[in-house]
Amino acid sequence: MTATAFDVVVIGGGIAGVSIGYELAADRRVCLVEQEGTLAFHTTGRSAALYLETFGNATVRALTGASRAFLTDPSEEFDRPILTPRPYLVFAREGRGDALTAFRDEVRRQAPAVEMLSVDDAAALVPYLRRDAIESALIDPTAMDIDVHALHQGYVRGLRRRGGEIRTRATATALERANGTWTVTLPDGDTVSAAVVVDAAGAWADAVADLAGAAPAGLSPKIRTIFGVDAPDSLTTSTLPVVDDLDAAFYIRPEANGLLCSPADETPSHPHDVRPADLEIARAIESINEVTDLNLRHVRSSWAGLRTFAPDRSPVVGFDPGVDGFFWFAGQGGYGIQMADGLARAGAAIFRGVELPAEVVAGGVQADDVAPDRF
């Protein structure tokens, strides 16, 4: 058995863990521990990631906007490009046009390029949409696809170049604090110690908090199912926008030779290696066929991940009010990839006790908006 001392131990190897680990490693000795044999095994590795400044609540949208500059021009550790253009179209069914207009008004602060479309214009952009099934639409021409692997691996490389250590198959089996130091026990009997533990364990974050003796943040893991279908030969998927139902019945994201579809489900779950929900897939197919000419029948592949939300659907970031040296970095929901940079830099500022990045503050976000004691 060996014991190794660090300044910070980060628990969790998804986008949350590697991004905050990277930021803290600029001036701290960081060890990241991940329970699986590979990093990003769960939610991060299963994301159909998009960069949408219209996505999430006001805090999420502001943190997403604060991430654009970095995602557009990342540092040398990152493969480029991380972002590629992919417009985002939202449609409203009959009787829901006023709700879509209200949505446009709500998101325009972060996404001023959003504009309403006529039904004819929407159908011209998305030939498979049925004109008689929708009332109105809007488009965000500044939306992007995100290369999740390039982003995650860039953070991994950057963390290591800054001297950080990464251990896989390293579940934290016990957390004990004495004399201002945490001792984290790993499955092989080894231990790592640090003054601060950062809980970036995603769906497992409340369980990690329990190990540390901290009260749970009330995080709720929710299943999101995705399935792939073949695209009709007549469709050129490279130029198609993402299509989203305003009322969250489904969304469709083009890929190389097909379409990724989701029922946009949020089924509450306990933390585990989740599987796609066949009933949700069937529901989504029925809903898609109601408003499109795709006539979906066969699913090529399917998978699922967990998106973990705090009660107000904003991240939980900051030192625990009741347990010394325990730092929350959790509750990213389905937005962790698109807001990774802004949230990690904000988290590092909160960690160090300095002012939040100017662009985060300009977006209207304060530390209290994400504090773990805000509930």
Characterise the protein shown here:
By secondary structure, the protein is an alpha/beta fold. It has two domains: 3-49 and 148-218 and 312-369, FAD/NAD(P)-binding domain (3-Layer(bba) Sandwich), CATH 3.50.50; 87-142 and 220-309, D-Amino Acid Oxidase, Chain A, domain 2, CATH 3.30.9.10. 26% of the residues lie in helices and 27% in strands. It contains nine helices and 22 strands. Strands 6, 7, 8, 15, 16, 17, 18, 19 and 20 form a nine-stranded mixed beta sheet that branches. Strand 21 and strand 22 form a beta hairpin. Helix 1 (15-24) packs parallel to helix 5 (148-161), helix 1 crosses helix 8 (340-352) and helix 2 crosses helix 8. The two termini are 40 Å apart. The mean pLDDT is 94.
Count structural domains: 2
Topology-level CATH name of the largest domain = FAD/NAD(P)-binding domain
Strand content: 25-35%
The main β sheet shows up as: 9 strands, mixed
- The gyration radius over C-alpha positions equals 21 Å
Count of helical stretches: 9
| CATH classification class of the largest domain | Alpha Beta
Named at the architecture level, the CATH assignment of the largest domain is: 3-Layer(bba) Sandwich
Count all strands and give the number. 22
**Termini gap:** 40 Å
Structural class: alpha/beta
Report the uncertain regions. none
Q: Bin the helical content.
A: 25-40%
SSE blueprint:
Blueprint: E1 3-5, E2 8-11, H1 15-24, E3 30-33, E4 50-51, H2 58-72, E5 83-85, E6 88-93, H3 97-107, E7 115-117, H4 119-125, E8 134-140, E9 144-146, H5 148-161, E10 165-167, E11 174-178, E12 181-185, E13 191-194, E14 196-199, H6 205-212, E15 220-230, E16 242-245, E17 251-255, E18 258-262, E19 267-268, H7 278-291, E20 301-309, E21 316-319, E22 326-330, H8 340-352, H9 358-362
